Input
Amino acid sequence: MADLGYYKMHALIIDDFENFRGTLYKMLMDLGIGNADSAASGEEALRYCKARSYDLILCDNNLGKGKSGQQVLEELRTTDNPCSDSLFILVSAESSKGIIMAAYDYEPDAYLAKPITPKALDQRLSRMIEQRVELKAVLAAQKAGAEQLAIDLCKELIAKGSRHANTCHKLLGQLYLKRDDIAAAEEVYRTVLDNRELEWAQLGMVKTKLAQNDFIGAQQWLENILQANPLCMKAYDLQAELYKLQNDSEGLQNILQKATDISPLSILRQQALGDVAQQNNDLITAANALKRAVKLGENSCFDKADVHSLFAQATIDLFSIDKELAKPFLREAISCVNNLEEKFGKTNLRRVESLLLESQLQVCSGDQRRAQEALSSAQAALGDSKEEAALPVQIEMVRTLRLLGKTDEAQQRLNDLLHQYANNEEQLQDLDVLLDEPRSEKNKLMVAEINKKGIAFYNAKDFTAAADAFKTALQKLPNHVGLRLNYVQALIDKLKTRFETGVSDKIQQTFTKTSAIISPQHPQFQRYRQLNDVYNTVMRTYEKNKRG
Amino acid sequence: MSSSEQKAGNTGHDQMPIDFSFVLASSVHDMKNSLGMLLHTLSAMMENSPPKDAEQARFFSTLEYEAARINGELVQLLSLYRMDENTMVVVIDEHHPIDIIEEQIARNDTLLKSRGIEIQVDCDSDLIWYFDSELIGGVLNNLVVNCARYCRKHLLVSATEENGFLCISVADDGQGYPDNMLLGPLPQTAVSFSSGNTRLGLLFTRKVLELHKTRKGQGYMTIANDGPLGGGVLKLYLP
Output
């Protein structure tokens, strides 16, 4: 074997068993590795990795409590640290297949199955290091952002018949895509595919099609891939990207739902599902996905405070349309907002936010005393802050006051805010979420447009399209009574054409929500009552027919 | 109501049916972890106190061989379970067959040494082919472990291209395969508890080969005797 410079290398061993660490240490020393440190947990290892650079990291995937090996890898590859491109070997007692399924985008340089023997380790290491040496210049150029240089070096390696031509082709495709030279990237993938239908090249084709806004082409490639391999998670991620580009939020939710059903352990997919389901007003799906995202966030570098708040929001929103559905989430949502500061750092605004969310959640659990306590603490902490950064918690404050039945106080706060931001389009857009009629120009325009579009669909008797149109606006303007009634009217007509329980549930939920935001003095109150009567008649007729 | 109906009614109402394959798979997973620990301790022990005489060396080698065999079987069981559940991910990419072959030999280094088996590899180091390296590696590993038991002194692993297929062949100098393994295609369920040979390895091999298919055809294997070393020879063909 050529001298690959083992003696110069510094390795890090990560395993929760002292025994394994010792054995691996001895193996590495016997192989002539210069130096090796050991860590018993992912957290400890990450501290080491921030302090110095390692050439090689051998990490067990199952590290007991705390971070898993995959999570250590993700954190190293996505955050700024001296080990972001260290050689990373993921060691596992099982096959790598399960890990691949759960993984998002970050793959180790190699998987190694336990039990590890000295010979097997030596063989794998020398293969990896030999490849690293051969590709060293390419990878360095790529890291430095010198794509053209990296491309030239790749081509040289391929031309001289390198053992790693396959890896070079993969890199070439990525480099061309990075440089927006789509035609060249396509050429790379086509050449590979002419020879063999390899999944990575097919996925590459999807990326070129997406980059060219060729949505039909992308869709066809994706269908091919998923038909051959329904477990190809990368294809699901690209399909999600495609729907995002097409602004198809229903499609996006469906594909993320499928992907998380197959592989529930990916936090990023659960977060994305929660997000889009919340947008689609599918609150039960949102609450479920966000609950899982919060749980998966425990040890993940992808955990975000927003996801925790959104979980609480989704639970509160769910409660406003169906108390029973919301119940199973309440306990976890409360503990989630209680831990917000501890997890993401103490700031006054975060404290106020978590108290306000807690207050609303306590109302949902029927504990008025605690709700009031949390509200008082929030009010004390917020004081009469007028700073702009406080607007989101001010909005949360109005919501909380409303939910606690303090309508006048809520209105007073809202009026103050509207006054403060009267000439401020951006802030008005945010405040519209609390209003029946929007104040911002953008949302006024949106309501007008959506109403026009929805009513056109409605008149053409396409009730599904009409309902969808009104629904998209409701996410931004949940308190807009007119839109809500338009939505419910479209749904009722849809129900009349064909009875579906899902639709009647949605109508029921919309009425529950509307009853909470409408007062008898509202100009549309009469219409609300009428629609309610129509719905009840439809239901009675259906029940009668069913019995008959 | 007939008695059979009663019986069905009882199990249906009183308890959830047990998904036995799931229970088995979970427990196999556990066993595999324990076995990993056992194998590890074993090799640490052998390192701390090397065998004092030939008899001890034989004991060690038996321990290691049997443990490696159980480990291999458990891996196969889990893989078959995944294939059955359609949760087996197959990742076909370009590989050098020589790498996969050397990997399996390296994995079984101690076993081969303790049995005094000389292994010869005949494979162009530039040869490339397309397959799932982990699955094919698993199949090859089983073959090597198995042959370590039945061969006398020599083992030959070779890889060449034959009519558009990659042919990986494992030949030994043992007594050859029994007749019932040579005859015809393999039965659907190659399991016979009474003979003590569940043929799990063959079932696994066949399933893995079936997962490799292209327009040219799908993977298959042949088993024959009077191979290049005088004993049995098993060939894997990959499109």
